[in-house]
Write a structure and sequence with these properties.
There is one protein chain. The chain is α/β, with parallel strands linked by helices and about 800 residues long. The protein folds into six domains: about 170 residues, 3-Layer(bba) Sandwich (FAD/NAD(P)-binding domain), CATH 3.50.50; about 110 residues, FAD/NAD(P)-binding domain, CATH 3.50.50; about 80 residues, FAD/NAD-linked reductase, C-terminal dimerisation domain (Enolase-like, domain 1, 2-Layer Sandwich), CATH 3.30.390.30; about 55 residues, BFD-like [2Fe-2S]-binding domain (Arc Repressor Mutant, subunit A), CATH 1.10.10.1100; about 50 residues; about 160 residues, Sulfite Reductase Hemoprotein, domain 1. Helix content is about 35%, strand content about 20%. The chain has 28 helices and 36 strands. The strands form ten sheets. It has a five-stranded parallel beta sheet, with helices on one face. Strands 9-16-10-11-12 form a five-stranded parallel beta sheet, covered by helices on one side. Strands 21-22-25-24-23 form a five-stranded antiparallel beta sheet. The structure holds flavin-adenine dinucleotide (FAD), nicotinamide-adenine-dinucleotide, iron/sulfur cluster (SF4) and FE2/S2 (inorganic) cluster. The site of flavin-adenine dinucleotide has 36 residues, from helix 1, strand 2, helix 2, helix 5 and helix 8. Keywords: 2Fe-2S, 4Fe-4S, FAD, Flavoprotein, Heme, Iron, Iron-sulfur, Metal-binding, Nitrate assimilation, Oxidoreductase. Pfam families: Fer2_BFD (PF04324), NIR_SIR (PF01077), NIR_SIR_ferr (PF03460), Pyr_redox_2 (PF07992), Rubredoxin_C (PF18267). InterPro entries: BFD-like_2Fe2S-bd_dom, BFD-like_2Fe2S-bd_dom_sf, FAD/NAD-bd_sf, FAD/NAD-binding_dom, FAD/NAD-linked_Rdtase_dimer_sf, NasD-like, NiRdtase/SiRdtase_haem-b_fer, Nit/Sulf_reduc_fer-like_dom_sf.
Length: about 800
Amino acid sequence: MNTTNKKKLVLVGNGMAGVRAVEHLLKLAPQAYDITIIGAEPHPNYNRIMLSSVLAGGASLREIVINDWDWYEDNGIRLLAGHRVTDIDSQSKRVFTDQGETVAYDSLILATGSDPFMLPLPGADKEGVIAFRDIKDCEMMMETSKKYKKAIVIGGGLLGLEAARGLLHLGMEVSVVHIHHYLMERQLDETAANMLQSELERQGMKFLLRKNSGTILGKKRVTGLSFTDGTEEAGDLIVMAVGIRPSVGLAREAGIEVNRGIVVNDYMETSVKDVYAVGECAEHRGIAYGLVAPLYEQGAVLAKRLAGVETSGYAGSVTSTKLKVSGVDVFSAGRYDEPPGSRAMRYQDEIDGVYKKIVLQDDKLIGAVLFGDTSDGAQLFSVIKSGESVAGREKELLLGLAPGAKAVSPTERLQAMPDDEIICGCNGVSKGAIGEAILVKGCKSVGEIKACTKASGSCGGCKPLVEGLLAIYAGDDAVVNAKEGICGCTSLDRDEIVAEIKRMALKSIKEVMNVLEWRKPEGCSKCRPSLNYYLGMLWPEEYIDEKESRITNERYHANIQKDGTYSVVPRIYGGVTSPSELKKIAEVAEKFEVPMVKFTGGQRLDLLGVKKEDLPRMWEELDMPSGHAYGKTLRTVKTCVGSTFCRFGTQDSIGMGIRLEREFERLNTPSKVKLAVSGCPRNCAESTIKDFGVVAIDGGWELHVGGNGGVHVRATDLLCVVKTEDEVVEWASAFLQYYRENAQWNERTSNWIERVGIDAVKRALESKEERKALGERIRKTLSLTTDPWKQIVKDDTLRKNFEPLTEPQTV
Ligand SMILES: Cc1cc2nc3c(=O)[nH]c(=O)nc-3n(C[C@H](O)[C@H](O)[C@H](O)COP(=O)(O)OP(=O)(O)OC[C@H]3O[C@@H](n4cnc5c(N)ncnc54)[C@H](O)[C@@H]3O)c2cc1C
Ligand SMILES: NC(=O)c1ccc[n+]([C@@H]2O[C@H](COP(=O)([O-])OP(=O)(O)OC[C@H]3O[C@@H](n4cnc5c(N)ncnc54)[C@H](O)[C@@H]3O)[C@@H](O)[C@H]2O)c1
Ligand code: SF4
Ligand code: FES
């Protein structure tokens, strides 16, 4: 039973369209619903569009998250990530997931997106045959490129070409197999497609046109592809990008009317009461869209409907596309294909590689294709959407020139645009809204405009226009000098903020935001934890840590897992335990029916799958220090057996490791910190991929810093060589405190050292005096730390945080 009187809203599909509708709803009626989002992918909501950029090296997976885990928590949304809804019972109004959850709803939104179409070729189940739809596919391509050389992409549409560009970037040879006689026939005419093909060939892509795929070759893993004309192409990876199908199985099984997509009316209502559909899975007036701009329009209408706000409904969209391949400018909008009764006008400059075509019908512009120079795209698209008469203006539209007029610069064109013209198609942001963000809300950079309006936050195609508007409204200098603040709430960077906090002795997050004129008085999930860290680092004795400003894992002192459970990792110093300690851990694991006990990469025991409400009792019974496996703090000190048992060992690596772990446990750091100690240069504890790595040598220790074994592997830089264990501690103290005082919040030592350079760090630590001062400061901070779980188990108020807030919405 639901303890509040709010209606229960369940969203199936944690993707772009559904979550955008929820974002709108939270703005219109924040208190109207208890919201549960169920998503099959084990990730928070991310920008699928940007997967192409991730593959092409333009963004990291972390950067494409739209709403992080904290967003759900901050908005009181229950998220079931990694749950696939398998059934809907629209009579009893419940949905069921493959993880055994049953969730009741009053209103249900289906936003299940699409499934990539996989050609049913013989051998399509072989290893190395994938689609390109989600993070998993993207990671698979990145992994494959490390081991294999040759990729085949089937499908020369938008997705196939973006995948092929990414694979080229990853160092693979790429052949694109296309069924049609020219590329992107769903967006381009033959002339533009041929120009595109030449450019992509120049970049290294190979094309096999008019090819019908036959059989996927290979034993367990793919080795190539044969075609129906008897030819073959070798390949170690096959990416199928031959279109998508709306994901409608769930709706069909539930008796909801389904055609190609889930059939909806102008209010996104399906044939079943209180069930809505939005996004690629929905079919509106016979069309299932496959681009975000129309899906976001649908989301805005649905949110109004759910909030009880009047809306004239969704009337369908004209779409435009832009290929996201660097070095190639291609734009297509509306009826590029010259339907009967239309006429086309073309301009081609073969020297500069520019091609433009506009399609007209009854004096109206109905379509456009641009290659080589797409700067007129936004304007043409807006004329298409307006449906206005363009009689007499055709040449101007094609060439950007009024008859007899001088050439119009992009700035002049932007200036002349009406305020209601859409600049960012992906997010539906008009010129007027961007102007307001700059002039009224004081945005000073593209990043701030993005934070304020979302413009440029998806495909990024509109970024030049946003920059152009910034220059017009705030002056050219604004673009040149525009520096990005730590987030969209401020234009100040980390160093400026820390300097101001020191100079004005600011002592709370609220005070910092007030005095430094934060744009959003409550801040955001990026600046609040940063300020909390900087204040704690600067004023260890006075500043009271603001728990609400910590990221979710640090608030609960446990790692949240993809199914919403938590993990318990007790501290085991240096990775050395005892039979009695192991027995105790085993007993607690058994008593609380912990589904999995696992050794971590840092030599600790991880009890996984723990319910939030069991955490305090488990820690009470364990009676061990927290392993801090969840925080931006010292995680583990990994050790090898060293001279205690190993015949190669020159020093006591276990003793050194335990000493370091006891010295620095509980330390707050800008990002997580991992240490390791190896007993000889064979380096069995992998010290040279740790933040601070110690390697024993004859008569001393090498100290290495800035290593990382994660996504971007980085080997350490040698900081210095010392003789004694005390010196190891002295240098570790100085290094860690210097990192605490100088790095940005959330910056690993590897990124920080890459940014500032190892020489700068060496110089800063070379004076004994300075090391001493840094050591004193770190010891002061360490003396004030306490074990979070020891506190929680003793304090009833703190324990209450772990009780379920409302009764679960399961029945
Ligand atoms: C690589 C790539 C690049 C793209 N580039 C562009 C671009 O530049 N411009 C553009 O406009 N569009 C682009 N698109 C298309 C755009 O990403 C989609 O149109 C958009 O993501 C669709 O949003 P959606 O919410 O309908 O579906 P999705 O974002 O696919 O979300 C649906 C979610 O529902 C989940 N789901 C499905 N069934 C269930 C179930 N039964 N239970 C629980 N969860 C379920 C899925 O796992 C998925 O996470 C691109 C797509 C890809 C793959
Ligand atoms: N920049 C962007 O806007 C962008 C980028 C990527 C994806 N997307 C969207 O994602 C969705 C999927 O993209 P897509 O490119 O897969 O779909 P698509 O339908 O646009 O293109 C598929 C292409 O595959 C070709 N094809 C079909 N069967 C084939 C076969 N047997 N052999 C070889 N080629 C074959 C088709 O001729 C077509 O050109 C679309 O909705 C697209 O709009 C958009
Ligand atoms: S690093 Fe050297 S001392 Fe340590 S286990 Fe390996 S070989 Fe033995
Ligand atoms: S047009 Fe895609 S982000 Fe603006």
